[in-house]
Every structure is written in structure tokens, then in C-alpha cells.
Write a structure and sequence with these properties.
The complex is a heterodimer of chains A (176) and B (102). Chain A contains six helices and no strands. By secondary structure, chain A is an all-alpha fold. Chain B is mainly α and 102 residues long. Chain B is 58% helix and 12% strand. The chains are: A mainly alpha (176), B mainly alpha (102).
């Protein structure tokens, strides 16, 4: 066996040894084919390609298994809940961000058009209304309406409302 | 429901190679030579096909002293899928061939 082929063989063996159990069958299959690859450089290239494929197959499985071992049964329940519900919660957060953006950008113009006398005398109130009261009310009303049918989205909305309120409280406390 | 398979040109090449001799087992290196795909491209395709149960694998019964080789062939579902994909590509391939002929 030539040096290049020997290196290729050893390299692939090492990678197989460190792969996830599910990936090892594939690794063994790639290693076995190495005997039939014509040419030493081709064998080395075959190994490099196989190693990449094996690493891509194995890494997510090893990561998942490491997380499972580390977090324990309670953590596993939380993780599986997150995996199942993440899309819904994320949708709630995105909707909340959209409502806040609309209210913050369009609200002042809309309010000053609807109640022109407010623009001059009640700028602070207008700000409070469009940046805080309207979006927070929308979040809470929407979360209550969606709680039975789309609980994940409602949770996303409530989380956003809580984050926004916390941010506001910290902001007010620091600037007064 | 199994996730849909992403049909890259390389995956199509692999499916076409299996369709050449639908019921016979093939070795990884032979598929690589027939399709011109390197191992780093070929094996992820085989893995995805196997995960979706479109491909079955088996270890060859080796002669004594020789390590066994891994062999692959399409499952009945895989064959059906590959044939349907080939049929759906047929009009497009005919158009491309016509264009090439001018």
C-alpha cells in the first residue's frame, strides 16, 4: 500500500471513530470502497470527500446527543416544547414587531390628522399613546383572543409585550 | 410525512443511474464513476435517499478474508419516485434537445 493510500485509509478510520453511531455504517461503507478506488491521489480525494460527507452527517447528530445528555429530563421537555412551538412563538414576536413599527411610524401622523389640536399641546401624550398604549393594548387584546386557538402566537405576543414593557420601565427609570 | 427531497442535478444523475438497472445492487464507487460525482457529493445524496426510505442498502456477502462492501438500490417507493421524476422531466428534456438541434 502506498503512502498516500495509507494516509487516506488512516484518516478515514480516525474520522469514523469520532463519528456518531448512526454515521459509522456510512463511514465503513466509504472506507470499504477505498480499496477499489483507482489511483493513490484519487484515493486521497475520495477520503477527503468522504470525511466531509461524514462530518456533515455526524455533527448534528452528535450535537443533539450532547445536548440531550447535558440538559436532563426537564431540560429535554423544555427543548422539545421549544422545537414544537418555536414557529408559533416566533410568529407572535414578528406580529408584535410589525404592530409596534406600524404604530410608532404611522400613529403620530394618524393621531395628529384625527385630532389636530393635540399636535401642539400634547406631544408627550401623543408619543405615549402611539409608542406604548396602542401597541401594548393590541398585544394584550390579540393574545387574549388567540389564547384558545393559537396559543403559541399568543405566547409570542405576550413575551414581546413583556419585553417591551421591561425596556420601557428601564428607560423611564434611567431618564427621570 | 417524510420531508420532500431536494432534486439537484446531481440527485437526478444518481436516480438516473439507479434506473439504468433498477433491481440490481450497486456499489458506491461504481455510482461515483458512472455519474462523475465525488464521494463528498455522492454520499450525502445516498444518505438523504436512505433517510426518506427511497434507497435500501445491504452489506455484500464477502468471500472469506475480504471485507464486505456496502451496496445500494432503490426501494419500490424509490423506483416509483425516480420514474415519476423522469417522466415529469421528459417534456423539458425534449424541448432542450429540440433547442440544441436548432
Amino acid at each position: 500500500m502506498s503512502v498516500a493510500r495509507h494516509i487516506a485509509f488512516r484518516l478515514l478510520q480516525i474520522i469514523i471513530r469520532h463519528s456518531s453511531p448512526e454515521s459509522r455504517t456510512w463511514g465503513d461503507a466509504m472506507l470499504r470502497e477505498l480499496d477499489f478506488v483507482e489511483g493513490d491521489w484519487q484515493a486521497l480525494l475520495w477520503t477527503l470527500g468522504s470525511a466531509t460527507a461524514l462530518a456533515r452527517h455526524s455533527a448534528p447528530r452528535q450535537l443533539r446527543s450532547a445536548v440531550r445528555k447535558r440538559v436532563g429530563p426537564a431540560g429535554r421537555l423544555v427543548l422539545s416544547w421549544i422545537a414544537e412551538n418555536a414557529a408559533g412563538v416566533l410568529s407572535g414576536v414578528i406580529i408584535a414587531a410589525g404592530v409596534l413599527t406600524l404604530s410608532a411610524w404611522g400613529g403620530p401622523d394618524l393621531m395628529s390628522t384625527a385630532v389636530p389640536q393635540w399636535q401642539a399641546g400634547h406631544a408627550r401624550l401623543l408619543e405615549l399613546l402611539t409608542f406604548v398604549l396602542i401597541p401594548e393594548s393590541v398585544f394584550i387584546v390579540a393574545a387574549l383572543a388567540l389564547w384558545r386557538r393559537r396559543r403559541n402566537i399568543a405566547v409570542g405576543l405576550l413575551l414581546s409585550a413583556m419585553t417591551f414593557t421591561t425596556h420601557l420601565v428601564v428607560h423611564v427609570a434611567n431618564h427621570n | 410525512m417524510r420531508p420532500r427531497l431536494r432534486l439537484s442535478p446531481q440527485t437526478i444523475d444518481v436516480l438516473d443511474d439507479f434506473l439504468e438497472t433498477p433491481r440490481s445492487w450497486k456499489y458506491g464507487y461504481d455510482i461515483s464513476r458512472n455519474t462523475g460525482l465525488k464521494s463528498g457529493t455522492l454520499y450525502p445524496i445516498l444518505m438523504r435517499l436512505a433517510e426518506r426510505e427511497l434507497l435500501e442498502s445491504s452489506w455484500e456477502a464477502a468471500e472469506p478474508g475480504r471485507p464486505p462492501r456496502h451496496m445500494y438500490r432503490l426501494t419500490p417507493d424509490g423506483l416509483r419516485y425516480a420514474r415519476e421524476e423522469r417522466r415529469s422531466r421528459a417534456p423539458r428534456r425534449a424541448r432542450q434537445a429540440a433547442l440544441a438541434r436548432g
